[in-house]
Amino acid sequence: MTLEIDIEAPWPAGTDWADLAEGALEALQQAAPELGNPRLIASVLFTSDAEVHVLNREWRAKDKPTNVLSFPMLERADLLDLAPDGPPEMLGDIALAHETCTREAAEKGVCVEHHAAHLIVHGLLHLAGHDHEISDADAEAMEALETKALAILGIADPYGDRT
What is its main location (predicted)? Predict the structure, then answer.
């Protein structure tokens, strides 16, 4: 998969956000090999809460910002059936909100880079057709994939403190 990455203010220049996104994808491909198809393209937008708020209101009828939005463009069955040869296929878009990501990282006591990596993994799994809101079993399966990818990156299990 190829990532098309756009980094807007207020994401600080001190971190290589594009490298972080690529690393998150590489780790996730080990946990979810269907995302390794070379035909796939996904866009990752690092943006502000204000921009994510607009997108969330326009596309999901939710009038508030959120940490990450995912806009899938392929059905899961089509992703799984996609041959490795052929023209590029757009998997979808994700958008991360800086202020929400930064606030959540502070609340969780983790660095913003680790939380952003988690949100990228989470968003890409949504693009791949995973959905934690369908059932507890689906949520557990998605969390297991996230945890596996994050472990590859050396990032602690974000769900480890749940009882």
Answer: cytoplasm
